[in-house]
């Protein structure tokens, strides 16, 4: 499938899903891609790519001249990401890497223009320190978090490296049609933490 629109925020239902592989939802994905401030030709990493939904939108943003590295330690996520990349016709510019992010980063030596960390990990602080070595000045790390503790880890790690940090808490409610009108059903608030390398 070749996604025909210029705007981001591919509807969630367009992605293939499997059980136990979580996905960054459409409205959060839009913000994440926007906060990364990507340009055509950029090189970016999606740490914990899950379904590949963020990797797909990164790939559309950086274009065929760019490069996306999509990493996940769950083989189910790696396979699903590959299938979603095929579905959106962007396999040419994405390298899917199976493995623990920290291990992958140890053997990685490309300069990066940005990175997204989707969700919590025990190794969050070390992952951020490793990413920092790959990022050019002005590049951004964007992380999202459901838990306060994960958001705090993201903020503290980025601050300790001297990044300029932005913190947001996003609450989305989706209208569900009832017999009398639309009831707004709240989703979990999500922290979005942005760090810009000075
Ligand atoms: C919330 S999901 C990411 C969703 C993804 N952004 C998407 O749009 O589908 C988090 C993913 O991070 C992966 N993960 C967590 N810690 C990791 C680590 N240390 N190394 C690699 N992958 C990791 C999990 O396996 C999971 O697939």
UniProtKB/TrEMBL annotation:
This is Probable cobalt-precorrin-6B C(15)-methyltransferase (decarboxylating). Its EC number is 2.1.1.196. Belongs to the methyltransferase superfamily. Archaeal-type CbiT family. It catalyses: Co-precorrin-6B + S-adenosyl-L-methionine = Co-precorrin-7 + S-adenosyl-L-homocysteine + CO2. GO terms for biological process: anaerobic cobalamin biosynthetic process; methylation. The keyword Transferase applies. PANTHER family: COBALT-PRECORRIN-6B C(15)-METHYLTRANSFERASE (DECARBOXYLATING), COBALT-PRECORRIN-7 C(5)-METHYLTRANSFERASE. The gene is cbiT. It is an enzyme of class 2 (transferase).
